[in-house]
Design brief:
This protein is α+β, with helices and mostly antiparallel strands and 321 residues long. It has a single domain, classed as 3-Layer(aba) Sandwich (Glutaredoxin), CATH 3.40.30.10. Helix content is 26%, strand content 31%. It comes from Deinococcus oregonensis. This is Sucrase ferredoxin.
């Protein structure tokens, strides 16, 4: 294996070589965040270690994803609190509410493995989760920032993610929590982080930029250039979302909004953005999106293969009708 000191990482940590990250967040309506040691991170990714109940659960979830084309999120965060008794661990369930989007709804549980498999199947397959009500715990306020530090999946996430998470954890407060988290995609964007319950994913973050994002202060344009997108929206809407943030400023992030791709072809799309302004009045824009060119970028530090990374132009018009 190539030594880390000589390994050419797929991420340089600055975002200067791979174009913009817009439109690269995974799309999901349901996400699970579970407390697990880094050793378990690897076991959850290795099907040879699974027991029969886990195999059956992930088999049914895979069938659902294949049938609907809609995935689900799975984050594993390193423990930061006192262990729970017995074989219980902390689990958070995030679900996308219907209608105008302001963020995912969160429910917290203390579960064992059997409870986790039951919750995952019920939530993804649209079944009743009330059987686990007695396992629910109070949901804290504030935001959770999950930094990918899973260096065993890709060295870039270890090299860039671990220092970022450590620096942010030292200064977090006021309800902001920062977690060491397993792989959630996008090695070439390291350090990459996911913001919940907003469901936004960010690329090539620094301590300074993340602190600025948490406080919603200063020049927002460097952050707009690093927004991969919200998992609540499809790829085209994520591109429009990032450009709307650049156009409208900080208030856009927390504005109630509906983003709808009304027309899409291979290299162009039209997205309708309906949102509520800071004065409480509704407004809307239409985004015309065009693929301008495609970059070939490496998706892994450990493989030489490249993948196409579309780059976009976006023009806005006041929506009508």
């Amino acid at each position: 294996m190539t030594a880390l000191s000589t390994l050419v990482l797929c991420s340089d940590g600055t975002g200067e070589s791979g174009g913009t990250p817009h439109g690269t967040a995974h799309r999901w309506d349901t996400c699970f965040a579970l407390e697990a040691t880094p050793r378990r991170w690897d076991a959850m990714r290795d099907a040879s270690t699974w027991g029969q109940p886990q195999r059956e659960t992930f088999g049914r979830l895979g069938e659902q994803v294949q049938a609907t084309g809609l995935g689900y999120g799975l984050l594993m965060f390193a423990p930061q609190e006192e262990p729970l008794p017995g074989d219980l661990f902390r689990v958070r369930l995030y679900t996308r509410p219907a209608g105008t989007f302001t963020g995912y709804q969160r429910r917290d549980y203390h579960l064992d493995d059997a409870g986790l498999w039951h919750l995952m199947e019920a939530a993804v397959l649209g079944r009743d989760v009330s059987a686990l009500e007695d396992r629910q715990t109070p949901t804290p306020t504030g935001r959770d920032w999950h930094v990918c530090t899973h260096g065993r999946v890709d060295a870039a996430c270890g090299k860039f993610g671990i220092p970022l998470q450590a620096a942010l954890a030292e200064q977090s407060g006021n309800g902001e929590r920062v977690w060491r988290t397993s792989h959630f995609g996008g090695h070439r964007f390291a350090p990459t982080l996911q913001e919940l319950p907003a469901g936004r994913t960010w690329a090539h973050m620094t301590t300074e930029l993340t602190t600025q994002l948490m406080a919603r202060t200063g020049d927002h344009l460097p952050l707009a250039a690093r927004l991969r997108g919200s998992s609540a929206f499809d790829r085209w809407a994520q591109v429009a979302e990032a450009h709307a943030f650049a156009r409208l400023g900080w208030w856009w992030l927390d504005a109630p909004k509906t983003l709808t791709t009304v027309q899409a072809e291979a290299e162009r799309a039209t997205v309708r953005l309906a949102f509520v302004q800071p004065d409480g009045l509704p407004a809307s824009l239409t985004a015309q999106i065009q693929v301008t060119h495609t970059l070939e970028v490496r998706g892994s530090s450990h493989k030489s293969a490249t993948n196409p990374a579309p780059q976009y132009s976006v023009t806005f018009a006041e929506a009508s009708g």
